[in-house]
Each structure stands twice: as C-alpha cells, then as structure tokens.
Amino acid sequence: MRRMSPDVPLLNDYKQDFFLKRFPQTVLGGPRFKLGFCAPPYVYVNQIILFLMPWVLGGIGTLLYQLGILKDYYTASLSGGLMLFTAFIIQFTSLYAQNKSATVQRMLTTDILAEEDEHEFTSCAGAETVKFLIPGKKYIANIVFHSVLAGIVCALGTWYLLPNRITLLYGSIGGTAPLFVFGWITLCIGEYSLIVNTATETATFQPQDTYEITPLMRPIYIFFFVSVDLAHRLLVMFIISAGTAIIPYYIPSTIGVLLFMTGFGLLLSLNLSDMSFVFKHSMMKHKVGNKSEALPSGSEKLFMWKECVLYIIVLVLALLETSLLHQFAGFSQISKSSSQDIVGCILMMLLIIVWILKEIQSIYIFGIFRNPFYPKDVQTVTVFLEKQTKLLKIGVVRRILLTLVSPFAMIAFLSLDSSLQELHSFSVSIGFTRAFRMVWQNTENALLETAIVSAVHLLISSSDLWWNRSLNTGIRLLLVGVIRDRLIQFVSKLQFATTVLVTSWTEKKQRRKTTTILCVLNILFSPFVMVIIVISTLLSSPLLPLFTLPVFLVGFPRPIQVWPGAVGTTACVCADTVYYYQMVPSLTAALQTAMASGNLGLLLPGSHYLGRFQDRLIWIMILERGYTYCCINIKGLELQETSCHTAEAQRVDEVFDSAFEQEEYTKICSLNEHFGNVLTPCTVLPVRLYSDARIVLSGIIDSHENLKEFKGDLVKVLVWILIQYCAKRPTLQEDIHKSESKRETPLVILPASNTSPRSKSPEDTDSLDSKTFDDWSDDNIFDDEPTIKKGKEGKKQLKDFPGTNLPIPGSVDSQRVGDHSTGTVPENSLYKAVMLGYPAVDKGKQEDKAYVPLMDFSCSHSHLLSLPEEWRSNCMPKAIMKELSSLFPEDWYQFVLRQLECFYSEEKASTLLEEIAKDKVLKDFYVHTVMTCYFGLIGIDNVTPSPGHILRVFNGVLPWSGALDWLTEKPELLQLTLKAFRYTLKLMVDKASLGSIEDFKELASCLHEYESDWYIGLISDEKWKESILQEKPCLFALGYDPNMGVYTGRVLTLQELLIQVGKLNAEAVRGQWANLSWELLYATNDDEERYSIQAHPLLLRNLTVQAADPPLGYPIYSSKPVCIRLF
C-alpha cells in the first residue's frame, strides 16, 4: 500500500459510473433510469408508468373518498383490490413473455455486473422489453403472495394517506401536501420493488436470496409503519395482555414475587453455558466411564466446583436477606422509608469508593489527567510488579466491594421499597425484574443507577411531582439506566464526529479539495448534524461517516457483534498467526487480573481494547458480561507492516510511550497529550511471549578467523550429535537391560543394532519436509551473496528418493530460476535459460572407495552405541578419507563418550564407557560416518566456507560432492547433519559475541543447551511453529537482507514482558465498521488504495478495518470466545 495523498479517490472511475447507476435504483426501489447502453425512449416511459401505477390506483379511491361517495374503509378496499388485480396482470404478462420463446430463461448469476449486459429491444410491448422490465418470480407461490401483499400495502397506504385524516393530524394544508406527495412516492417505491423489479441490493447477499426475500423488505417497512397507526389500540391491548403473562404477575404473594425476582436475577446473570457444558460432561462421564473424552483444559480452569458452591451460598443469602427485609419493611411506614433512605446513603458512599478505587488503577483519570498513584517509567516486569503491589491490594478490596458488598446492599434497597408491599402490577413486575437482574448482571452500572435514584429521592421529597407520584422505584431505575446508556453513546458519538470533522482539516494528508466545503456545511448545519447524532443515539445505531468523511448518516441498526457469524471461526491465517496462538493463554491470565482490579475501566459489551508489543497488535472485544465473568474475543493483526499500517502503529507507540514512559520528575497531574485520539491508554499487562530481535551478523559470519574455527567446530558438533543420537535411540535402554541381565560377550561382526530406520522424532524433523533448494550454479563461485528461493515456485520436491525432498544436483530445473518475491536476489538472465551441471562420472570408471573392514568390537557393549548399518556404507575415495581422518578429534570423541548417562548401573557406567571409548572398531565407524557427513557439508575443495556457502547450507542447499547422493539416500542422517551444521553456526555467533570456549566441558554444556532450550532452523519450517507452540525458550534463524546486503540473525526469546493496553472509542469503531460494510457490500468499493482504508493517525482507520471480522476485515488470528473470571 503506497503512502496516502489528499487526491486518493473515494471511488475509482469505473466504480463511480457503477455507483451512479446503482444509487438511483436503490432510492427508487428498482427502476433503471441510467443504463450502460443506449435504450429506446419507451423503455424509460414504461418504467415511469409502472412506477406511478399504485399512485393512480390509490388516487381513484382517494378521489371517491374526498367526494363523499365512499367511506374510508371502502376506499382502502377498492384501492387494494385494484392493486391486487394489477399485480396479477403484471406477473402473468411476465410469464407470457418468458414462455413465448423457448430459449428465453431468467438467468440467476452471481455476477453483480450482469445488469450492464446490452439488451436488444424490438418494440414497446415486445417479449424482450417485458422481460427486461419485469423479470418475474421464480416460484408460483411468490407470484400469489407478493401480489396479495401488494394489495394489502396499497389498501393500508391509501387509508393512511387520506387528505382529510392528514389535515386533522397537522391542521393545515402546508403539512398535508408534502406528507401526501412523499407518502405516495414511498408507496410507489415499495410496490415497484414487490411486483415489478427489485433493486440490486448488497452484492454479497444477492446470490444467496434463494426464496426472493429481498423484494419484501421495502413493503414490510411500509406495512409496519402504517399498521402501527391502524392498530395502536390493539397494540396497547397486546402489550397489556403480554404483561399479564409474566410469571411474577401470577404469583399470589408479594414475598413470592420478590424471591422469584431475586433468584432468577442471579441465575440469569451467571455463565450458564459453561455450567451446562460441565454438567453434561459430568453426566456423560458417569454413564460411559473412562471412554468419555476429557474435559478441555480451558474449561477446567474457568469453571471450578468451588465457584458453584459460592454461587449457591450467594443465592441462599440473597433470598434470605430479601425475605427478612421485606417482612421488616411491612411493620410500619416510618421504619420502611427511613431504612431505605439509610441504605441509599450507603449505596452512594459505596459508589464513590468503588469509583475512586477503579480510577486509581488506570494510567489516566477520566482519560485526561494522569493518575499520580500509577507507577512511572515502567520498563521491566519486575519493576512494574514491585510498584503495582499496592494497587493490586486495592484492586482486591474493590473486587470484594463490587462482587459481594454492593449486590447485597442494592438488594436491601430494593427489598425495602414500598411498591413491593402492595399488590404488584405490570409496571412493578417489569421494573423490578430488570432491577434485580442488573444487580448481578452489571453491578457497577446498577450501583450508579441506584445511587442516582436515591439521591433524587432525598433531594426531591415532594409527593406531588410526577417522578414520585407516577413512577415506582423499578421504573425509575429503568429510565435512569436508559438515560445513562444513551448519554454514554451520545458523548462517544459526539467525540467521534468531532474528531472526524476537525482532523479532516488539521491533518494535511486527510485534507481534500472538498474538505473546506464540508467543514463549512457542517458548521452551518450543525443543528441538523446534532439531530443525526441524537437519532443515531436513540436508535443505538452506529454513526456512519460516509467514506469516513465528515458526512454523517444514521447507520442501520445492527448487533454489537456486527457480523452475523460465530466468533473466532474466520481469520486470514498465515505464518505469523502462531505468535498470537502462543501468547493468548498468558494474555488471558493477565487480562483476568486487570479486569478484576479495574485497570481497564467499565467492562461493557461492545467495548474494544488495543494491545501493543513490538510488531504485534492485539485487538480485544468484550462480547458478554455477567456476574463474576466476562466473555471476550481476541484478534491478532498482521505483522507485515505496510506504509499505512506503519504510520498508525507509530502513532499507537507514541500514545503509549507518552503515557507509560514518564520520567520521575514529570508533573504529578499531567494531561493526556493525545486526548483527541480514539485510543486512551489504560495499563500494561505482564505476558509470557516471544521477544523478536533482529541482529546484523556482519563482522561475525564474514570473519576469516571465525570461518576457520567453524570447520573444526563442525566436526566436533557432528561427533556430539551422532553419539547423542545413538545413546538416545528408543531400543537402547532395552538392549542395555538385556545385555546386563545375560552378561555375555557376543561375537560382533558389523553389528547393526538398529538396521531398520526409526521413525523421525519431532526434534529431528527439519526443513527438508517443506523446503527445497536452489542449484549451486557458477554465479555463486565468485559471489558470496546467496540466491534462495522462497516463493511457491521453489517448493517443487524431488521424489526420486523416498523420504527426502532434495533436488538432484546438476539436473536441469524446468522452473524459472529468477524469483522476484521478497527476499530473493535477482539473478543474471543468462541463468534463466541455461543451467550449469555438475561433473559427470563414467559408469565404468569408479575410483577406489574407502571401506571399513569386517572386525569384531573389542568391547562387548560397543554395539549399544554403534551407528546404524546403512550409515556405514562407503562412498569416499581412500585418499580423501585418509586426509579427512586426520581432522577427527579423538580426544573430544572419548570425552563425549565418557560423559554419557545411558546405563542403569551407575557404579559400572564409568567402567563400561571407558571400555567403549577404547574400542578402535567403534571409533573407525564414527570416523568414517562423521567425516563423510563433513565432506558433504563443506564440499569437494575442503576450503574455508564463505558466508554465502554457510547461508545456503543452513537453508538446506548442500554443495555438490561425492557424498551428496550418499547423504540424500539417508534422510535421517541428513537431518542430523543439517542440525549439526546449524548448531555450529550458532556456536560461532555465540563465541564471537560472548567469548571463546575454554574446555570440552563448556562446549558440551553449550551443545546441551542448544538441544534442550533452542530451536535453530528455518522460519518456514513446521518445526519452527511447533517450537513456538511448545514454548521453546529460544529460537534462531539465519537470513540475508538483499536491500542492505548484510547477513542477519533472528532470535526469539520467551520471557515475561509488558504489553501496553488502551481502550478504544467503541462508537468510532462501530462507525468505521458500518462505513466499511456499506462500501464493500453495497458500493463494492474493494479498491486497496481507496481513501477510507488509508492511514489516519487519530482514528486508526487502517487498523480498525483490519480488525473487522471477515469478509469485511482481515485479522490473521481470531480466538473463540474466551471466558474470564472476575473473582
């Protein structure tokens, strides 16, 4: 994505023409007055006639009513009947036109541009014209149903729009005429969509409309609005009747009603899904015994039986308190009123205390003033945890007050209310049922609402006021709750709108040619903008900024979840997804502490949080909130940083750095420098994850001295790897036990203790299973820069040898050599046409090969550490093997053998190992195998390797040599050889960075650490991902940066580090997601360079788009709903 400029188009040229044709269709319900081809005038005239037909038919009935010939209900029936008759005529005309030509068939295509196909028209009433204007219905049942519905809507609309009725409503002609005209236009839009042709709606859902539901949308809206006025009395009666069906209304005693509300209020606020899951699992476990599947570990941690016991105790205490206080309140009017006032004062004090304890947990108070109690300049986990100890203790106090004290105090307040002493009514049932539910469902909000009602009651004691006279306490709490919720939404929407408006001018990169005009219009019509914000708030709809410009619309009311799909089932999974998988369990534990202590503020469904660590961005959304639990969804954004991604990520870093990296001398109550940003810092979380360090190896990997030492270390590491492999074979311990029990000395001639290849262990699995290599062409002889293929073209695997993926050196590869993917060095075009092969050897001329004579082991236990038989075959000339044998470190070989711990009898282990170390035949086997592997890694010349050579072999591309075919035929040995080479490279880097190794003991300790705590290999390997998920302490990979021309190392270290977390403006997120939905699903504006996806440092527009659920967004990780315990 290139850097954004003010001239980035909102829609490209093609989409602009497409939108200009699509938009009138949507507004008018389906007429196509702008086509992509030249059409005769009668096509447009016919559409106008069909569009105005309902108005004409309704006008006939309206005229007869105004003349006094018909009454209103006869007028409606006449217009409806005419509309029904006309609808049938239109539909049967369409059927006749379709059946007139056998080859004509309505095509249902998923191509949204099918409407642009040209049509040939022969006459005004020809079959082609009719089929274009009236496509018809797929099912006969829909012909009947849609026609009947069209008649009903026309009848109700005619009755609703009678001029006399409208005049009685508004009292003037000035109000009647506009409503009459626009009302009939609305009816024409709905009728045209229903019986003629439907507008092209959302591109994604159009092919999924199997049962033709889309034509019903507009008429249904009209029907609902008209029928409300028609059946207002029936509606009131229906609500009253429904109210009588509420269970509390049928409970004969007031104490029964109170206990029912209290008990079910608590039960419905618990995480019943987890409880039912555990209960079902327990029942199944008892039925099928041990054959039942184990309960997932996550659910075991989330739900404990002690919590069930806690809930039972809380329920019993709540019911006991309710009944006792209700009986106490019935003694006298004076004690009842004064007792409730006392409890109200206690609730107000609790609210102040809980609010103060919550605010001092976060970095900012009200998001503006820096919290003086929050630790300053927090850089490490240990320092942060030491400074946060006091805050955690305060968090425990707040948790107790909020979870145990406040609910029982509010239950006492409600139980003492006088409304529950009388015969309960519908309003009492509704209000108090909601109040008892909120006590547990959202204790903080319920505490605020109850404190406000108590304060108002104390301040306004007059019984003549409407508040005290007409409303009971339950309805008062309901009204206060609605006002609280809408007020929070209004403030958030207003802040979002202000940010969009101001930044469109102050941010130069956001300033467009139309910005000045839009800003002036927003200022001039600010009352109308406020009305739009208020309507959006009342409907709880997102405030939609069109193209994220300061053009505000009321979004379609949608659930907070936004996309109608299961949470966590879709994500754009890639290689970086594994980093989020690894960190989520630790992040969940850290979030549990932070949420329970109040570090993240009010936990409301639909709230969004953003976490940041190095190149990782974590998006957290609250899905559900209940008593002592919170359900969240965690998403991970892409790590590959585009220009827009980088610009917003830098702003996120600036916001967090200014909050958390404060010096000690900073003012106590400093202000939030980034208050206008949608992101407000909250806290830092200690999370166990991988830190990613990129280091430059220049001066290490290209040092001649280091490379010379590399050759000697390589032989030692090969010896160590092979001995450790033989000592840890699965059959070794069994062979040792048998040998010790028999205590015999067998005659051994070329013993093969493991003649059959064993299955690959996870530790031995390497990159060859998923990675292929480049040929060693002549352009690399004088150039150390590697040519490593990383794209899909470089993943064709060789199948000549089973179990290996190595290419045949010297063979001509049919695929292109040049690969222009990221990280690939361009090659000379000469090598794209010509491949240089390796030397050929005549079949009849074979050099004398070195061989190992058939001899007996001098020690009876040597066969326990012997190499597999197939590894002892010969492929090296005698002269070369003799020369290489002098490089074998015999003292190191004996040291490694003596350090083994693989025998049961510890007192005899040293003696046996000493005898094995002196076995010359066993040593010759190791010399032969080790030096052959060494020859296969270094190559024919046996010279000091170059940096390019090391990188190629590290990536699995071995040089040509006589041992190459021998190695490729032994996949397991090849894996061990590559592992030894990579360990040696890591050893070279460590020696250059930390200092040289003094003795064999230190070297062995270093190799043991590599084996147990490190994975050294390729990032593209599956083993790399497995090591991350298994939380291997460290990982290392070698790479090359072609842009800078340097060799690089990547080191991942698992440690507990701090993730910075901030709260996002929820309405800003909803508004941008609503615009994204409109652009992609309606305007089909999926241009990757469109304006609304460009970087916006204050709105974080690009990151917000990424975090949306697919298909709108593209997070690379999305978790299933995660339940967090808050107590």
TrEMBL record:
<feature type="transmembrane region" description="Helical">
    <location>
        <begin position="257"/>
        <end position="279"/>
    </location>
</feature>
<feature type="transmembrane region" description="Helical">
    <location>
        <begin position="168"/>
        <end position="189"/>
    </location>
</feature>
<feature type="transmembrane region" description="Helical">
    <location>
        <begin position="42"/>
        <end position="67"/>
    </location>
</feature>
<feature type="transmembrane region" description="Helical">
    <location>
        <begin position="341"/>
        <end position="357"/>
    </location>
</feature>
<feature type="transmembrane region" description="Helical">
    <location>
        <begin position="220"/>
        <end position="251"/>
    </location>
</feature>
<feature type="region of interest" description="Disordered">
    <location>
        <begin position="735"/>
        <end position="824"/>
    </location>
</feature>
<dbReference type="Pfam" id="PF05041">
    <property type="entry name" value="Pecanex_C"/>
</dbReference>
<keyword id="KW-1133">Transmembrane helix</keyword>
<dbReference type="InterPro" id="IPR039797">
    <property type="entry name" value="Pecanex"/>
</dbReference>
<feature type="transmembrane region" description="Helical">
    <location>
        <begin position="308"/>
        <end position="329"/>
    </location>
</feature>
<feature type="compositionally biased region" description="Basic and acidic residues">
    <location>
        <begin position="760"/>
        <end position="774"/>
    </location>
</feature>
<feature type="compositionally biased region" description="Acidic residues">
    <location>
        <begin position="775"/>
        <end position="785"/>
    </location>
</feature>
<keyword id="KW-0472">Membrane</keyword>
<feature type="compositionally biased region" description="Basic and acidic residues">
    <location>
        <begin position="786"/>
        <end position="799"/>
    </location>
</feature>
<dbReference type="InterPro" id="IPR007735">
    <property type="entry name" value="Pecanex_C"/>
</dbReference>
<feature type="transmembrane region" description="Helical">
    <location>
        <begin position="73"/>
        <end position="97"/>
    </location>
</feature>
<feature type="transmembrane region" description="Helical">
    <location>
        <begin position="139"/>
        <end position="162"/>
    </location>
</feature>
<protein>
    <recommendedName>
        <fullName>Pecanex-like protein</fullName>
    </recommendedName>
</protein>
<feature type="transmembrane region" description="Helical">
    <location>
        <begin position="517"/>
        <end position="539"/>
    </location>
</feature>
<comment type="similarity">
    <text>Belongs to the pecanex family.</text>
</comment>
<keyword id="KW-0812">Transmembrane</keyword>
<feature type="compositionally biased region" description="Basic and acidic residues">
    <location>
        <begin position="735"/>
        <end position="745"/>
    </location>
</feature>
<feature type="domain" description="Pecanex C-terminal">
    <location>
        <begin position="965"/>
        <end position="1119"/>
    </location>
</feature>
<dbReference type="GO" id="GO:0016020">
    <property type="term" value="C:membrane"/>
</dbReference>
